[in-house]
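Tutorial, part two.
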Amino acid sequence: MVLVSSKYLLDRAYQEHFAIGAFNAGNSEFVKNIITVAENLQSPVIIQIYPLEYELMGSKIIKYVLEAAKVSNVPIAVHLDHGRDLNDVLRSNKDQLNSVMIDTSAEEFAKNVAATSEVVDICHRLGIAVEAELGSIGNRFANDSSNMGRIYTDPNSAKEFIEQTQVDFLAVSIGTVHGPYPSGKNEIRIDILKEINRALKIPLVLHGGSKNPDQKIKEAIENGIAKVNISTDIKLPYFHAIKDTVIEKPTDYEPWIMLKQANQIQKDILKEKILLFGSNGKSSEYLNDFRHLKPYFPYEGEKVEFC
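Running the prediction step on this input gives:
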């Protein structure tokens, strides 16, 4: 199986009202678990690397992920999550990730447009799909008085942003928060999402996908969300399971003993998420269309080959 463009994955998901799970790979065990569950459920999947994970594991982890994806029997895209600047993006280009996010949403609108447009110009020449963000996803370290840092995405601004940048997917702020919800207030604003979807008509991305009511996730997918980012839900139980195993078996040290429970717990959660997103069994729809089974998307214009 070859890598598949995230644009191809999300365009179809958007049209057919299911979503692709985008799971953060914190180490090589995560990669194996994600691919194992995706193959068992015959689901397309996105494996994504956050910049701090990237720095922790180095570029060699990308080679491992890419090779694992290439020998899988399901369509997989490998994505840079929350690229902080052009340097992050260029590093991911060099390491041949076939999907990137540039997140300059903390900047004023014009600067966000300029930074995103620059990344789109570079990446589309390489056939790499680009995600950006408008508004502000909540922060678990913020407080209720500041709406936990959430600034909802404005549909009119979003339309202008898409027209100016030509970005492929947009991460929208509709009430979610990165990480656990200390206040318990995690209501997804479907009303705002509907307005954004009507205005843009492109695949939308839900960040802070963990710890949300299943019904709200389903409603979001019905109204334009085609990619759901999951990190907290697969990390916290995993590392707590390792902690519990260490306490229970303090004299053991072999990886196949210490990681067994953690890996199984993570696989169970991955299965729940993929079934919730409705992408199970969808691999065949992609695999039957051989024209699009390519790692890079054929954007119009000049193409640049990797060195």
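The two ends are 23 Å apart (CA to CA). In part three we will examine how such features are distributed along the chain.
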